[in-house]
Amino acid sequence: MHRFNSRLGYLSLMLATLFWGGNFVLGKLLSNAIPPITLTYIRWLPALIILATLFYRPTKQAFRTIKSAAGVMWSLGVLGVILFPATLYQGLKTASVLNASLYLAVVPVLVILLNRWVFKEKIKPLILLGAIISLIGVVWLLSQGELQRLAHLHINQGDLWTMSSAISWAIYCCIIRLRPTNISNTAFLTALVGFGVLTITPFFLYEFWQSSAEILKNLTALQWAGTAYLVIGPSILSYAFWNFGIAIVGSAKGAVMTNFTPIFAAFFSILILNEEIQPFHIISAILIIAGIVICGYKKK
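The structure corresponding to this sequence follows.
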């Protein structure tokens, strides 16, 4: 039974990264047309409406628990719902998806170090080894099998924004262990998004007054379709799968699964942009999966 739950946890985390892979591709396209705060808001407000409609009762029943843990819930909402996507969209205006994904790949190592620093959690050599191997796989993917490409990565303002996005997600993965454990995942996610939307609303209204009102009127049907994907996939389903998976496998092991995101981003670029599969795709996939398997290994 324990083994089944563990596999279910890893499957949930993989599905979350599947949707986030699409978020990188669409985020790059949409961020050039829609300001980052506005894009984050129109992604999460419809998601909140859907979640509140579907899970109003369990969320209402958990109100006391949510209120007692308001500080943690607000922190997670700000980190995961606002900072992670908004700084990513801001960065993708000038940074490449290659750079943004590379910074995200450092998240598992950051989580291990944060857990050690904040929660005094012992770093198991096997987990560290798996994280490093997985990171090497991501670097190999992003360098397209030519490591000298990394020497030519240009650090600009966009890169700094995407670094901030990766750091915010690492902190989220670290402190999610503090979430209330006596409420359902659906109620937790609904409350999390609620805290995030309430916090970002004043910033959205300012941006809407300044420029977004005219921009939103001129969006194409294809751009609205891309936004709809952000609402359903990377917002609702991915966070639900991620929070469920982390609750089963733990933050240190689960964070390594973040490295599936660049693989899925590459898959979507092949599917949508008709790019050919190269040998470095296969090599990097083997390394990333090997690292994840090592992190998930447990002696009997």
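Residues 185-217 form the longest helix (33 residues).
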